[in-house]
Amino acid sequence: MYMKKNFTFVALLLGSLLAGGCMKKKEDARIPFLDVTNTTASGIRMFNFASGVFDGTEVTISNVPLTSYKGQNNNTGSGTPLGLSLFPSGIWTSGDNGNPFSVPASLLDKEGKAHIVFSSLGGSVLLDTVIADDVVHPKDYYLLRDNSLKVLERDNIPSARAGYFKLRVINFGNPLPGILGLNGPVSLTYADGSLVDPLLSNIMPGSIGSYIELPFGAYQFKMFLANGSAVDVRKQLAEKPLYPYINSCDPSDIIQQGILPQLRTFKAGGVYSIVVTENYYKSLTCDKQSGGAIVNGYRVITELSPAPNYVFARMQAVNAMPGKQVTISVDGHPLGGQLAYIGQTSPGKLVQPPGDMYVQGNHHVQVTDASGKELVNKNITLYPGDHYTIWACEQPDGRPGILFEANEMTGTLYTSSYHPDGPGGGVIPDDGTNGGPRRTRYPYAWESRFLNLSPDLPYATFTNSYQLFLPAARAGFEDTMRYTAAYVNLPSCVQPLQDVSMIYSLPFIGPFQPDAVNGNSEISYFPRQIRVYQSVSGPAPEIPGAVIPDIIPLDTKQAFIANDNLYTDPRFKNPETGVYTVAVVGRTSKTAPAAEKARIIVIKHNK
């Protein structure tokens, strides 16, 4: 009986195996998408600076087509899985940063060489070459607009100074005179036009500057043609994707200024290059037909991506106590020395306060007067990447106070909607695992916070001259860039707890630019004057309240300009992008000394 049952079981098992062997599985005829995320990279890294009329390049390496070659003979190829992992759009575009990619080691032959062919979208071969991999000395290859390759040894060594990054300037621009005259040696400056370093100045065409080291933080670098030990303020280069100023109706009108680059955070341990190359810019002719111009411009590229910042933060110090000189110390060390009252600075001009770098963790802040007597102390806990301004202020009850202002240095707002595919991709429920799709960044932002630091004003409201700031709805989002909580009924010596940043998007857009960069500019909505009102909070609020006539309104075309000498033509003088704080300081009482009278001041937080 046992043997019969066992035989039956075996027979059934064999039958099921035979039946399974006869079944045919339907196979997908498409090329399977390979997981290439862990593919070993060679030491060959390519950058595309060959922007032209058709901004894209076809790539074949070792006879493997990596781009789709859609433009050739009406072929609608789809690209290989390996290629799509490198170029998801099916084409190698130049991008704002040269769109770098590393050649996979799997495409090298047994001698460690790669046969590389670059072609135009029309199919003509631009460059056919063989490159040998050198793992000991990895190299970067820049494809320029003339289809040549520039070879540079890669710097894989971060700064030896904790909290610093490395930066250099490379000038591969066309040295011959162009239509805008942006040819020749270049110098790098901060936002106010001051030179960054002699090693980043007078970089001749075809030259590669030396690295310098700077403390990590938010910078707004500008590039000008060099003029000896200074710069030519009429010859400013545009940072991609911004356009230079092109006036097709008057080719002799070649002044280049007022071009406001992105505010970028350069991270500790990173290695960066600012590269000048020749670029093609689409533009409209005087009769509004399609045209273009070839002009030198620059990009910011990352040569070595830094590790996440787990250590460093930054703080600044400002004295907003009327009539007093104070010292603000962090852990017993003065930040910026003895600080004069901020209300004594030149009226209507921005101020850049002293700052320093600190490690994450708890810190003790102390404010002392000119005799060394302690006025107030307070503790703060810093987290990596924080940026704070320490304000010494007088509270409404007359006691000294400390305000820690948290500065948002990226032009980013956190939205209430969840858009994984951008504003046009629809809204899906937020499961709480990833807040990235909620963040919206404005790379060309005027971003400011407003503070009431006057001990005589229980509540203050800032206005666009005599009206409230208009909100700005963003396409596809329910939020605004200018919440009323940022500037309405602000208590004295307190930072608003939420919605504390106000943003205007102000990209530089020339009159013959075919389309706006990153949306339409809001320059026409930007306030011409900013005023302060004494408002009333509570169950029956008064908003904006009563204007304070003794406080001179802020002229924004003066207050948000880092350096008037950068402008020789009034057409280009508009409020500059960057990160600011607008604050009312001083006393409103009629008996207050003239040096302590209330006024509006402007702090700029980025370099």
Distance between the termini: 92 Å
Q: How many helices in DSSP terms?
A: 3
Helix coverage percent of residues? under 10%
What form results from the Cα inertia axes?
globular
Strand content: 35-45%
Uncertain stretches of 5 or more adjacent residues: 1-37
Query: Strand count, sense and closure of the main sheet?
Result: 5 strands, mixed
How would you state the average pLDDT, rounded? Answer: 88
Tell me the count of domains: 3
- Rg is 30 Å
Structural category = mainly beta
Number of DSSP E strands: 37
Short synopsis of the structure:
The protein is mainly beta. The chain has three domains: 107 residues, Immunoglobulin-like, CATH 2.60.40; 150 residues, no CATH class; 293 residues, no CATH class.
Written overview of the protein:
The protein has 607 residues and is mainly beta. It folds into three domains: 41-147, Sandwich (Immunoglobulin-like); 155-304, no CATH class; 312-604, no CATH class. The protein is 5% helix and 37% strand. The protein has helices at residues 2-22, 81-86, 556-559, and strands at residues 41-48, 58-61, 64-65, 101-104, 113-119, 125-132, 139-143, 149-153, 164-171, 186-189, 207-208, 212-215, 217-219, 222-227, 230-236, 264-266, 271-284, 290-304, 312-319, 326-330, 333-339, 355-359, 361-369, 374-382, 387-394, 400-406, 412-414, 439-441, 445-453, 459-464, 490-491, 502-505, 529-536, 542-547, 554-555, 578-585, 599-604. The strands form ten sheets. Strands 9, 11, 12, 17 and 18 form a five-stranded mixed β-sheet that branches. Strands 30, 31, 33, 34 and 35 form a five-stranded antiparallel β-sheet that branches. Strands 4-1-7-8 form a four-stranded mixed β-sheet, with no helix packed on it. β20 and β21 (333-339) form a beta hairpin. It is globular, with a radius of gyration of 30 Å. The chain starts with a helix and ends with a strand. The relative contact order is 0.10.
